[in-house]
């Protein structure tokens, strides 16, 4: 448990305190009648105000037009007396204003102090986003109570009703104006509750693909496989079709090979299955499989499948090694690819008729790297550690 130092909290609440002081000043100025009795000021001064205005004299200008002569001096005296009464009333209520400002400041400090210790109220959860939401709600409630107490102390409770009424109308207008922002905020809350993905998982959201780095109140951050940082609005993520490649550790790869129509499909598939199964990173459960995609005049198209464990092997590297082994095995067994429409042999070069042994594909995958690709993991970790608005945590951390 760490206490929150008071000096660190003061700058963050300075604007809040100044705002409440201005509200308190306005409330004090409006809380009493304009000509109420004020200490040190005689009511006779107010009564001494002229009861009737002198009849404006009618004067004729040099141009012959007639205008009303306004007693500017009397109007200025009235404005001065009114301002003087308000200033004196403000000075008389200065202790109450200071007390109200102190109450608001204490409420702000207490709200921040308690919001950092939610375990006292048994409100803490394992979801970091909900923790932040509850923390802000607790602080706002305590600060609102402080404002109400301060306004009640200044006898300005009528101002509360006016402010609440204005806030309702203003909130409705702002709701229409900032609809997208509110939609993204609510979508962020729902995504945090549902948690369809975790940091570091590879996902596809609509046409966007990358590893999850962070989720803030307004946007989700992806690191694409090219190393670029991609930010998607939460509303788009919430409504989009999400494909999570990492949620299941086992993932299937596939590739196709075309062979000439004169070649044996049974022999080709038997050779390919043997080569794919020989790769250490290819799982035996599910086992490799195959299918004929197409057979036509141009040849036969075979599709082969294999499974890997993404926690230990990289899908792309394992697939590439499988293609290399199958291609080499087909070459050694004489299984040819589709021939072109015109196949003309002008001469036979004995030196190139049979490929040299060194040019053939190796018959083993020993020493080939099929480990998990870690090219962008460091960038994902940097975003996770530097983004203070990140709302996601690893499963092990919860």
Detailed description of the structure:
It is a single chain. The chain is of the alpha+beta class and 398 residues long. Helices cover 47% and strands 15% of the residues. The protein is built from 12 helices and 10 strands. The protein has helices at 6-30, 43-47, 72-92, 94-115, 128-153, 157-177, 179-194, 234-239, 265-277, 315-333, 350-353, 377-386; strands spanning 58-60, 66-68, 202-205, 208-215, 219-223, 229-233, 242-244, 250-259, 289-296, 299-309. The strands form 3 sheets. The protein has a 5-stranded antiparallel sheet. A 3-stranded antiparallel sheet has the order 8-10-9, covered by helices on one side. Strands 1-2 form a two-stranded antiparallel ribbon. β4 and β5 form a beta hairpin. The protein is elongated, with a radius of gyration of 40 Å. The two termini are 19 Å apart.
């Amino acid at each position: 448990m760490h206490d929150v130092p008071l000096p660190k909290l003061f700058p963050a609440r300075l604007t809040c305190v100044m705002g409440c002081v201005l509200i308190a000043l306005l409330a004090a100025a409006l809380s009493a009648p304009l000509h109420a009795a004020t200490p040190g000021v005689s009511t006779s001064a107010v009564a001494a105000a002229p009861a009737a205005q002198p009849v404006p004299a009618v004067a004729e200008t040099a141009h012959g037009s007639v205008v009303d002569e306004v007693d500017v001096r009397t109007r200025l005296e009235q404005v001065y007396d009114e301002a003087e009464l308000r200033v004196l009333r403000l000075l008389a209520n200065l202790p109450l204003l200071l007390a109200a400002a102190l109450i608001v400041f204490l409420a702000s400090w207490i709200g921040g102090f308690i919001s950092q210790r939610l375990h006292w109220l048994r409100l803490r959860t394992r979801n970091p986003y909900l923790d932040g939401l509850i923390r802000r709600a607790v602080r706002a409630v305590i600060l609102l109570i402080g404002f109400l107490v301060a306004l009640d102390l200044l006898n300005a409770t009528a101002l509360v009703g006016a402010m609440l009424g204005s806030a309702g109308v203003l909130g409705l207008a702002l709701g229409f104006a900032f609809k997208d922002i509110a939609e993204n905020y609510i979508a962020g809350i729902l995504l945090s509750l549902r948690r369809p993905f975790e940091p570091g998982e590879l996902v596809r959201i609509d046409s966007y693909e990358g590893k999850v780095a962070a989720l803030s109140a307004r946007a989700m951050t992806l690191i694409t496989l090219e190393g670029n940082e991609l930010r998607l609005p939460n509303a788009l993520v919430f409504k989009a079709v999400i494909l999570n490649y990492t949620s299941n550790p086992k993932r299937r790869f596939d590739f196709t090979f075309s062979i000439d129509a004169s070649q044996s499909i049974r022999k080709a598939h038997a050779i390919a299955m043997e080569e794919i199964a020989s790769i250490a990173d290819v799982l035996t459960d599910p086992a490799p499989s195959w299918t004929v995609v197409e057979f036509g005049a141009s040849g036969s198209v075979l599709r082969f499948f294999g499974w890997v464990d993404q926690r230990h092997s990289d899908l792309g590297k394992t697939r590439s090694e499988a293609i290399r082994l199958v291609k080499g095995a087909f070459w050694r067994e004489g299984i040819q690819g589709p021939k072109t429409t015109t196949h003309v042999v002008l001469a036979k070069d004995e030196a190139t008729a049979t490929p040299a042994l060194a040019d053939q594909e190796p018959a083993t995958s020993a020493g080939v790297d099929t480990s998990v690709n870690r090219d962008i993991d460091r960038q994902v970790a940097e975003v996770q550690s530097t983004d203070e608005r990140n709302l996601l945590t690893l499963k092990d951390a919860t």
